[in-house]
């Protein structure tokens, strides 16, 4: 009997304890802007690190910021950045703060949307040094105002990646849910971003209809107007013979590009004042 009473008392105390426990706020309410810190000490041979950078670029994109890379090292270090085991960027870096261009903002944002089957991270970073280097690399975001963009000649940028960034001739899109959300929610809109060195003219068409022409601005991203989105909705009402059995919006995205130009055009929805993103490719 005493054992039963004791157990009841313990359970009552536990229930009271749980009832007085504050519920932890959601992640979005407590988490600081995303960042990555890679520390190294006595670095001579290569150090490999898998990094997830798409969240950082996502934050910069939605809050109109830039991606900042702070390098602190007592010696010059060599770095190589890989995507799906393909070398993307390499060079020597030292004590300096680097501001990445809009082209690389799009690249980092899309890195998480195109995962490799054999990797669990966005990009692979390998650093090495001829001398025993000690320091850190910090990747984060910062406001656009007041920064100085550093350009180094020893950094070889490689944007054209054959097996990932294909030349854009024609691509099928399903934009129905995104357009519906953007039209019914005043705080949500549809945007296009690109990392192409030359800004393309995007054309959307269906069933050989007259295409909708959208020019991407000088900042490599543009927001579709309500008129554009209504035009796309009207395109959705067309039923092509080859699409009769499909219950989705099938559009053709074409871009006016030079034959040798490769890159990525990325449609996504933006919810203003939020980090919510819906990728469409």
From TrEMBL:
This is LAM_G_DOMAIN domain-containing protein. It comes from the Eukaryota. Residues 1-19 form the signal peptide. Keywords: Signal. It comes from Caenorhabditis tropicalis.
């Amino acid at each position: 009997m005493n054992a039963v009473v004791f157990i009841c008392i313990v359970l009552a105390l536990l229930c009271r304890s749980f009832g007085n426990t504050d519920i932890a706020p959601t992640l979005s309410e407590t988490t600081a802007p995303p960042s990555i810190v890679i520390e190294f000490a006595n670095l001579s041979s290569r150090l490999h690190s898998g990094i997830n950078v798409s969240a950082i670029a996502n934050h910069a994109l939605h809050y109109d910021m830039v991606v900042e890379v702070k390098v602190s090292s007592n010696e010059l270090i060599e770095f190589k950045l890989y995507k799906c085991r393909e070398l993307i960027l390499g060079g020597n870096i030292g004590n300096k703060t680097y501001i990445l261009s809009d082209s690389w903002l799009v690249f980092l944002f899309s890195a998480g949307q195109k995962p490799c089957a054999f990797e669990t991270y966005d990009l692979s970073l390998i650093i090495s040094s001829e001398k025993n280097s000690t320091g850190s690399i910090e990747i984060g975001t910062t406001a656009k105002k007041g920064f100085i963009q550093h350009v180094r000649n020893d950094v070889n940028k490689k944007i054209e990646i054959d097996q990932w960034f294909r030349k854009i001739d024609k691509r099928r899109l399903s934009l129905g849910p995104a357009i519906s959300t953007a039209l019914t929610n005043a705080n949500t809109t549809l945007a296009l971003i690109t990392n192409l060195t030359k800004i393309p003219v995007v054309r959307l068409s269906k069933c050989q209809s007259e295409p909708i022409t959208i020019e991407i601005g000088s900042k490599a991203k543009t927001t579709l107007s309500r008129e554009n989105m209504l035009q796309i909705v009207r395109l959705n009402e067309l039923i092509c013979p080859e699409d009769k059995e499909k219950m989705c919006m099938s559009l053709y995205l074409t871009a006016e590009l030079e034959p040798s130009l490769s890159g990525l055009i990325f449609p996504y929805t933006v919810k203003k004042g939020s980090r919510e993103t819906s990728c469409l490719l």
